Amino acid sequence: MTSTSLATPENRTASPATMQALATLNDRLAAKPAAHLRVEKLSIAYSTARGPFHAVDDVSFEVKPGTNLGLVGESGCGKSTVIKALIGLQPEGTKVSGQALLDGQEILGLSERALQDVRWTKISLITQSAMNSLDPVYCIGDQICEAIQAHESVSRATAWARAEEMFALVGLPASRLHDFPHQFSGGMRQRTVIAMALALNAGMLLADEPTTALDPIMQSQIMSRIRGIHEHMRRSMILVTHDIAVVAETCENTVVMYAGKVAEKGPTTDVLARPLHPYTMGLQNAFPRLPVKGQPRQALISIPGIVPNLLRPPPGCRFAGRCPFATERCHIEAPAVTAVGAQSAACHYIDRAPEFREAAARPETWRKLGAGA
Amino acid sequence: MSDLHTSRPAIDPDARPIVEARDLKTHFQGRSGIFSALAGVKPPTAKALDGVDLRIRKSEIVGLVGESGCGKSTLGMSLVRMYQPTDGRILYLDDDITRAEGRRLKDYRRQAQIIFQDPYSSLNPRLTIGQVIEEPLVIHDIGNAAERRERVVRALDLVRIPAVDNIDRYPSDLSGGQRQRVAIARALVLEPTFIVADEPVSMLDVSIQASVLELLDELSRKLGLAILYISHDIATVGYICDHVAVMYLGRIVEEGKAEDILSAPLHPYTQRLMAAIPRMDPGDTAGRAEIRGDVPSPMNVPQGCRFSSRCPYVADLCRAVEPELGQHPAGQRVRCHIYGSEGAKRFPDLQRPEWGRITEVTDAGTLAQASS
């Protein structure tokens, strides 16, 4: 992986001492184990002029070391809010309760000083808008070096050499470390953000919609990089996306969120093959698929209605207003989480899931409800 | 309401097109700085659209796909005359409107409407839904206040937004899907014959995309609208389009019936574009052919085939001669030397591309040694 580019001034002066320092740094970073994260009863309420907005309500999940967890749901379901709370980026005045244990250490409500020790070294973030997460007035290499030198006492030359390695890992030429963000295309910027997130080999990666603004070819390039890194470096990762197919390809486990709550979670294969919650069924059937020659096309459904206003969350099941199978009970009583094997869902009628799955594949099922909404 | 999985009625291929582009070119002139101007350096030209032929008939939905920066939106905006084409012709019902101005241009714009990607910024937040939809009628000086209101209500009916509840509300009161419907109603209120829908669902949640696609499908059948549906999401194209054209760097590289293109693409670019779409079946990433690098700049179009800098099958012929869009026996038209082309016969001594002979194409788009 050592770069052979001699174009950079750092490399021309890269002394054997620097290479030795880099090897030591690499060994130290590579020794970091993949992180284990357990989130218990996480609730987050933003404070607004009209009272608390319960963006996340009683969410629990676990990321085992070296696995990927997919967090899916529509816009406004609280996915990004969970991520922001985990890395301590929630706006001031936000009420966060519950626990998030990263390798046994509580990471919610840490002081600024304590957060500095956690961010980048133990948990790092791949943001959605790569355009806004890079400083336009510093060259890319300086920004990566800054992050490395803030946490590891190494020389700038060593940090630069590490940055070159990270660039090679995401498939960018080392010479472009001298460029500024505006000289990069959207896909290159996104890869830069991934390189930064990997620079200190954090045990836990949080990827918040890393490919949402990109076209399918760029998305495929970025996701295959992320998958490759996951395979080679065995990091743990939470991948936030609204694209179920990206989760299907990348994540061992899936959490489906709806209106701040976990609707369903479990191994991705189970959740997609046998969804238990009507919301998961709806999301899955709304996803456009490529046709297969000779086979009839599957119908595309749309889920009528919108996510409820979480300033005043409805008393019963939060999906009841849009669910084609909702009964009176669903509107009054909030469903408990029921487990079926490794999979679990918050629905009163979990035992009727096979029957619902069949009905949910038909557009009429969802349309009947849509007529009134 | 129609179901998206039922097949659309066949379009008569000999029917007169509503809108037709013939060798349409839209180039953008870069600005030169004072020093380069003094030195006599010509500013660069971005050839965003560089020779496109396309026809859209009554009740037909034509899908236009390709990566960001391939010229899809430039084609859409040129067709409705938001951009002035540099060369070539646009025919509206056989009437050449490429350089129409004044009254004639205004008349054409009444017939040709466009829907944009972002329903959050395409609606004026200070106007009510009724005023947003009424505005085109005012601009074209159609009817009195009562007649206009009636037309607005009819347009809202068409997009299935209850007029009584919504006509006096503001865009901020509506969800993304509803806003996009309002944008469609605004395009419909002039009773156009041709609509360009530029990524109409890519900003919407997947849960409501289907309802907007369904609406476009229904409108094309009910009102006989000719629709150009622009999207980088190839999977959605399969649900509503009769005909699909794939663009790369300002030109069409493959076109044909939607089902042919989507289930058996021929051009190496289309094949990779399709392979890039994530699949729902877990673990099904095997055999994915990754396309590397970025689209070359339209200011610096490669010699020969435009895809040659990224194509795994590239051979000497591709780098020297641009292939023409040729008819393939499978049904679609494809611009690739692999399928043989007339123009290439003049260069018998150049090495030809063939399936299976994969050459290594580097990330930067430059060509490395052919490995075999």
TrEMBL record, chain A:
InterPro entries registered for this protein in UniProt: AAA+_ATPase, ABC_Ni/Peptide_Import, ABC_transporter-like_ATP-bd, Oligopep_ABC_C, P-loop_NTPase
Zinc-finger found in the keyword field: no
Keywords, sorted A to Z: ATP-binding, Cell membrane, Membrane, Nucleotide-binding, Transport
UniProt keyword Membrane, yes or no: yes
GO annotation, biological process: peptide transport; transmembrane transport
Pfam families named among the record's database cross-references: ABC_tran, oligo_HPY
Top-level taxon of the source organism: Bacteria
Topology in membrane: Peripheral membrane protein
Xref: CDD domains: ABC_NikE_OppD_transporters (cd03257)
GO cellular component assignments: plasma membrane
GO molecular function: ATP binding; ATP hydrolysis activity
Residues of the ABC transporter domain: 37-284
Cellular localisation: Cell inner membrane
Chief location: membrane
Family recorded in the similarity comment: Belongs to the ABC transporter superfamily.
PANTHER family in the cross-refs: DIPEPTIDE TRANSPORT ATP-BINDING PROTEIN DPPD (PTHR43297:SF2), OLIGOPEPTIDE TRANSPORT ATP-BINDING PROTEIN APPD (PTHR43297)
NCBIfam families with a match to the protein in the record: oligo_HPY
Protein name: Oligopeptide/dipeptide ABC transporter ATP-binding protein
From TrEMBL, chain B:
Residue ranges constituting the ABC transporter domain according to the UniProt record: 19-274
Localization per Swiss-Prot or TrEMBL: Cell inner membrane
GO-annotated biological processes: peptide transport; transmembrane transport
Membrane topology, as annotated: Peripheral membrane protein
InterPro entries, per the entry: AAA+_ATPase, ABC_transp_ATP-bind, ABC_transporter-like_ATP-bd, ABC_transporter-like_CS, Oligopep_ABC_C, P-loop_NTPase
Primary subcellular site in the record, as a coarse category: membrane
MF-aspect GO terms: ATP binding; ATP hydrolysis activity
Gene3D superfamilies the UniProt entry points to: P-loop containing nucleotide triphosphate hydrolases (3.40.50.300)
SUPFAM superfamilies the record matches: P-loop containing nucleoside triphosphate hydrolases
Domain of life: Bacteria
CDD domains: ABC_NikE_OppD_transporters (cd03257)
Keywords: ATP-binding, Nucleotide-binding, Transport
GO terms for cellular component: plasma membrane
Membership in a protein family: Belongs to the ABC transporter superfamily.
Record PANTHER family: ABC TRANSPORTER, ATP-BINDING PROTEIN (PTHR43776:SF8), TRANSPORT ATP-BINDING PROTEIN (PTHR43776)
Protein name listed in UniProt: Oligopeptide/dipeptide ABC transporter ATP-binding protein
